[in-house]
Amino acid sequence: MSELMARLDKVVMQTYGRTPIMLVRGEGCRVYDEGGREYLDFVAGIAVCALGHAHPKLVAAVCEQMGRLTHVSNLYYTAPQVAVAEKLVDSSFADRVFFCNSGAEANEGAIKLARAYAKKTGRPGAFWVICMERSFHGRTLATLSATGQDKIKKGFEPVVEGFMHAPFGDLDAVEVLLDETIAAVLVEPILGEGGVVIPADDYLPGLRDLCDRTGALLMFDEIQTGLGRTGRLWGHEHWSVFPDVMTLAKGLAGGLPMGAVLATEKAASALGPGMHATTFGAGPVVCAAAGVVLEELIDHGLIEHAARMGETLRRGLEELQSSFPRRIQEVRGKGLLCAVELVGPGAGVVQAMVERGFLVNCTQENVLRFLPPLIVTEVEIEALLGVLPEVL
Ligand SMILES: Cc1ncc(COP(=O)(O)O)c(C=O)c1O
Description:
The protein is globular and about 60 Å long. The protein folds into two domains: 3-55 and 302-391, Aspartate Aminotransferase, domain 1; 69-299, 3-Layer(aba) Sandwich (Aspartate Aminotransferase, domain 2), CATH 3.40.640. The protein starts with a helix and ends with a helix. It has 14 helices and 15 strands. The longest helix is centred in the C-terminal third of the chain and has 22 residues, at 302-323. The chain has 392 residues and is α/β, with parallel strands linked by helices. Helix 12 packs parallel to helix 14 (378-391). The strands form three sheets. Strands 4-10-9-8-7-5-6 form a seven-stranded mixed beta sheet, sandwiched between helices. It has a four-stranded mixed beta sheet with strand order 1-2-3-13. It is 38% helix and 18% strand. Pyridoxal-5'-phosphate (PLP) binds at residues 46, 102-104, 107, 136-138, 188, 192-193, 221, 223-224, 249.
């Protein structure tokens, strides 16, 4: 471990298990450590750096905006926010957007909106949100309470009241819970941290029907699945079903912190002046970045590219599975949200990949997750597939 890493560990709270490399620079899908060693990045800041590292258009837009106007708060109108809000609304089911700074904060906003909506529509007792087992919604008190994994809550009890959990993929379990006390159903279209789990085709449409029957809002947490990650702009497009509310973050500003709550006019009307706010939300600089990300995704073919690269990666991983049936239990994924469930723990594989110059992530102890920048090329995917047999 270098001296710099030791200094960091001495003064920063020890909440992360870090891989002992100090990264200092990035370009495209590659990052470099302090010794100049190159790594192919199949983590992308945990599905954040959609355009890779140091994307020239992103850098130019952010630098230009920094020199013009950095921050004034939402007490005033700022021009970059207009374009981003319009683009999100024009390209989704939503009529309105609330901007914030992270995924957890977006889900907090959605949960508040659900409670406010229930009260506004004459159901003051409806404050419960049905969430799913194995889900992940963030680390704030309300979002860890919404999260369906005990390890995330441990040590912080009592959790916030108002969340109940059903097994992911089980429509009957939601139907049993869904009574007049339920404000919303909150679900990731594909479980991300939970191990890249794809539901049966009738699941999300079934949740839509159930919510329509009772007046509960259907809220999709697309923080990991949104913005081209699955080969479509929104994960829910794979099932042709629309939510009332959707949360975003991760790739939205290409590496700068930005989150968003998108909602239909009807749902959004529950939040009036003064009911929700943030100092930093949608500042000019993150909006300049988001403008570039959305343009690349929607207008310059990046979604289609991600879908093609996702196919290449998935096919390669499936071939790998047939070569290593006793090491690989299952290959799952859509687009560039791809995973390999190993037989046995994945930490050693992650370490061996780092030693060979590849950054990959492991979730749920045995699920290798591949989340490269959406600009990843076939050559870079082949390089990953080339090294995995030796490591396995
Ligand atoms: C589906 C989902 N929701 C919420 C979050 C929380 O986002 P953040 O870490 O930006 O608060 C994450 C982060 O991994 C996520 O994957």
